[in-house]
Amino acid sequence: MGNRFETFTVLLASINRCIRRIKNEEIKKYDLKAPHVSCIYFLFKEGHLTSKELCDLCEEDKANISRTLEYLEQKGLISCSSKAQKRYRAALELTEKGSKIGSFITEKVNEILDKASAGISEGERAILYNSLEVINKNLLSLCEEYE
After folding, report:
1. Which pLDDT tens digit goes with each residue over 17-70?
2. Hey, is 77 helix, strand or coil?
3. Please, what sign has the CA dihedral across residues 90, 96, 100, 106?
């Protein structure tokens, strides 16, 4: 496999673009964008999370998450359960309106994952995800060397 770099980087970039496009198309009827999808998804899945936890789960920086959360709060999709704590450490949760969108996103994610993995067995999928986890771990270690 002589074109490992090209194959790896081009495929990952293409997958990422497709995911972003699908997110944007599926969620635009709610006046939301791709970055909002992950926050709503994780809040729906977990029930309540802090901004810091969302940063970690969404692999986003604090500024991007703050902008996203501010927008979601203005749209009435999330609420902060505590006004006393620092905002970054306060638990956030979906409102009833946000939960309906969270349910839609979760159903759509499952539907799209089924379509995207058509023709791949459970065993092949497990190997793929394991391989991606190992690659990610190794790349994170390499990145630490640059810091």
Report:
1. 999 999 999 999 999 998 899 999 999 999 999 999 999 999 888 899 999 999
2. coil
3. positive
Query: Hunting for tokens 């990952």 — which residue is that?
Result: 12
Using CA atoms, how far residue 47 sits from 56, 72, 98, 120, in Å, is 16, 15, 11, 31
User: Quick one: which of 30, 33, 13 has its CA closest to 22?
Assistant: 33
Single-letter amino acid code for the residue at 105: I
- Asked whether 68 and 57 are in contact (CB, 8 A), the reply is no
pTM of the model: 0.84
Residue 94, beta-bridge partner list: 78
C-alpha dihedral sign at 10, 12, 13, 15: positive
Q: For 60-70, b where at least 16 C-beta lie within 10 A, e where not — what string? A: beeeebbebbe
What residue ranges in the chain does DSSP mark as E strands? 48-49, 78-80, 92-94
